[in-house]
Amino acid sequence: MGDVATLLGNTLSPVAETRRAAEKTLDQMTAQPGFAVQMLGLLEAQNAPPGVQQAGSVYFKNLVKRYWDDDPNGVLAPTEREQIKNNLLTLMCQVNRQVQAQLGESIRIIGKSDFPNNWKTLLPDLTQKLGATEDFTIIIGLLETANTLFKMFRDEKASDELFLKLKYCLEEFQKPLLVFFKSCMGMIEPNGSNPAMLTNIFTALRLLTRIWYSLNWQELPEFFEDHMTEWMQEFHKLLVFESKALESDDDEQPGKVELVQQAVIENLKLYFTKYEEDFAQHVQQFAITTWHLLNKTPMLARYDGLVTSALQFLAQLIGNVRQKQLFAQQSTLQEIIEKIVVPNLRLRESDYETFEDNPIEYIRRDIEGSDSETRRRMACDLVRAMCRHFDQETTKLCETVVTALVNEYRSNPSQNWYQMDTAITLMLAVAVRRHSLVGGVSEVNPNINVNEFFSQLILPELTSSNVDSQPVVKADVIKFFATFRNQMPKEMVVQILPQLVALLKASSFVVHTYAAQAIDRIFMIREQPQAGATTTPSSRRKFVYTAEDLTPVLAPAMTNLFAILESYEGGFENEYVAKAVMRIITKAQPATIAQATDGVLDKLNTVLGRVCANPQNPKFIHFLCESIAALIRSACSVNPQYAEEFEKRLMPPFQVVLQQEISELTPYVFQILAQLLELRPSKISQGYLSLFPPLLHPDNWRNVGNHPALVRLLEAYMRKAAAETVGANPKQLEGMLGIFHLLLSQKSTVDIAFRLLIGIVEFLPPEAYRGYLPKIFELSFTALRQSNSKDFALSLTNFISVMVGKHGVQDVQQGMQSLGGLNFNDYLANVWVPSSKAIKGVTDRKACAVALTRVVVEAPELRTPPLSTSLWPNVFVAVLHIFEAPAPTVDLESQEEQLDQISETGYASSFSKLVHGQTEIRDSFKEIENPKLFFVRKIAEASQATPNVFPNLIQNALNGKPNFATCFQNITQEAQVNIV
């Protein structure tokens, strides 16, 4: 044990070599049986230095974390596990607070696996130790452990197993919980002037209150129902409790009393939400208490958690139809608005400091929705709850307050700007009925004339010539405009657009960011569906604002946006500005963008170079690369010769990215290279040919995040130069197939593995790859059997569809049959036909229909018994099923709207596809415009060669299927063919 203590001490050494050597030795010892118990013995030793004990507790916790659930080598033997469980709780009561925390976490880890079924002694021991000590260090440690264990019942899906665990825990702990709670409550008054003791008592009370929450979450236990009045009396005492002794000098961090009161209100919210009928007799008392609590609680940040919980509870009560009578008096509603809502909407000094000094955080709270637990958001939710049952009354009260606030602002704008901020926020709260971050407002309070309010109060502030005056108010009016953009008349929006462009020059980060976001939002507004009309998907409705509306402000908008990007304000890359640049490039006339290509590309290249040196903001990087891709697409649509110019200008920074392996940018570089390669009007250049072999090197495939982009680039090579690359060099083809094997081995990359194969079979003649088919099928079907996944079957079917559709059935049949264990007809019946009904993409469905058509007419064995009465009809009907149930189309515009999800909901993906980097929707059968006509004409052609066969087959296939019979008849008439 002395050696272990020495090693633990050495892990704290300032000498790196000593520290690393000790860590290495301990890591080796950790994997040895018996080490965990030895470590517990060290922690129990009274003479071990505190630092050594702390380090030992961390090692013990990590050992438990590593081996308790996954221990194939038996590091923790069954006897050792029992020894640990029998001693851990006792040891936790003997050590200092720091070591206690680590041991408590160890109990949590073990308990997650073993409690309660395989650790029956834990809860009785914990309860016994709680009742046997008055040492609050031990009490708090034990309660923290219990709180952690019981959290398993929160938000967990109900099940028989869970309820058995809950029943056990209730039987063991529900009575002691009430006893301990009342005991702590009884200690408050005698220790009223003892801050240290009160701190311990309230720490324990909060833990007991959270345990109560966990044990009541799944259902209302009988014991708690029977003792509800006792509990509620104690909770009420806590909500009205005040103590000078526990008042904190810290304005930011909540004190012990506030934490307990917030926990109590969370309990009240739980009961009101889930057990309202049982809780009904206590509702009025707590409604009044919560009201008074909100009225008296100061605006300091340390009370924010308490206030937001209280506001949520009050909103639940007001919005509930059975409780609305509590708030029906006009004076009550007025007091709520004036004394609770307005004060909590008001911007505090700390909020203004955030606006000035940390604008990114302010923006995230204000327009990205990260303020879900702030006073402002909860006060707005309270107003909306009031409107649910008191719509007209609440609206009038809010309008009165707004008018008073605006008048106060106008009396002295420089001093009273915060009143205008409160007025606009209150108006947003009462006016918006339904809203989404991406789509804007879709339903407005019918009692409010939003356009009138905008014209009279918002527009004058928005069009003020001084872009730097009253920055908070400027940000508010831009936000108001952007929120109600769908409701604004087009002529007004077009009039405001130049002012938004001017506001891009504002020195306030928040103001010019909001202006950029508003410009972006304007050009994503679509026509609203007509009243009473069938709902049309948003991607099918026309954009309201077009290139004509953008043209007058295009040049100054780009100038101002790039000025922000080049300023690199505060070292932060502004994703909203980058997104606005992207939007303008995509919405402007391609001819206009083509004329400005040189200047715009220079600006983007400059920013790209800076990002290469310090890639910090994934959203910004994405929109920057989308802007580059959009510029390429627009310019090359006007003059394809631009592609080579883009290659020349972008290659230097791209080489930096690839040589330095800048992982944040490499996927985008590969995608843009693919785009440029596909857009080249001339043959593939020598530069691209020399780049191809390194792409196949295994080193490039170590980073999984690069895989989709690399496949996208290899697909472009196949589309543009399959013959010059893999077609001319079997080694390169083998390299591609090696990549296919790698991608096939990972569930997340199966789809792109088969996309890679599709590129090979689509653009190469069968003789180039025929010899590899047996191995391809062996790998594919082995993986299919192992995964037993519908998604895998779909990806495999998409590949085989393209292969059969392009080159016929024979190669696939022979490739499968050469393996011995595979049969094409079995695959057709058990995988392909069932999968055909689940294929989603339009072009994938088209490929499947074309391929199955060829199977119908090119597989003679299917037309003879017994397959002629079983498999052939199923294949025939599968094609008709594809025609009858077409998949929804996905176009570039609807994909473009998906970019808003990146902007508004966060960015967590290791790979994100460049929407504007797609040159076209992949279609392996562009030459077949109408697969329905192709289907019947192919059958008609085959029937001419083999008369009197197909009519009988078709009649048998359609027997008892009138919908498919009608479908086939309609297609035949459209094609004007006869089947003989």
Give the SSE layout.
Layout: H1 2-10, H2 16-30, H3 35-44, H4 50-67, H5 78-92, H6 97-114, H7 122-131, H8 136-150, H9 160-188, H10 195-217, H11 222-226, H12 228-240, H13 256-274, H14 276-296, H15 304-318, H16 330-345, H17 349-357, H18 359-366, H19 375-389, H20 391-411, H21 417-431, E1 432-436, E2 440-444, H22 450-462, H23 471-483, H24 490-503, H25 509-522, H26 547-567, H27 575-587, H28 590-595, H29 597-613, H30 618-638, H31 642-659, H32 666-679, H33 686-695, H34 707-721, H35 730-744, H36 750-763, H37 766-769, H38 773-787, H39 790-807, H40 810-817, H41 824-836, H42 842-858, H43 871-884, H44 892-905, H45 931-945, H46 950-958, H47 962-975
Antiparallel strand pairs: 1-2
Helix pairs in contact: 1-2, 1-4, 3-4, 3-5, 4-6, 5-6, 5-7, 6-8, 7-8, 7-9, 8-10, 9-10, 10-13, 12-14, 13-14, 13-15, 14-15, 15-19, 16-19, 16-20, 17-18, 19-20, 19-21, 20-21, 21-23, 22-23, 23-25, 24-25, 24-26, 25-27, 26-27, 26-29, 27-30, 29-30, 29-31, 30-32, 31-32, 32-34, 34-36, 35-36, ...
Describe this structure in words.
The protein is mostly helical and 980 residues long. The chain has a domain of 86 residues. It is built from 47 helices and two strands. It has a two-stranded antiparallel ribbon with strand order 1-2. A hairpin with a 3-residue loop joins β1 and β2. About 1% of the residues have low confidence. InterPro entries: ARM-like, ARM-type_fold, Importin-beta_N, XPO2_C, XPO2_central. One of its GO terms (cellular component) is nuclear envelope.
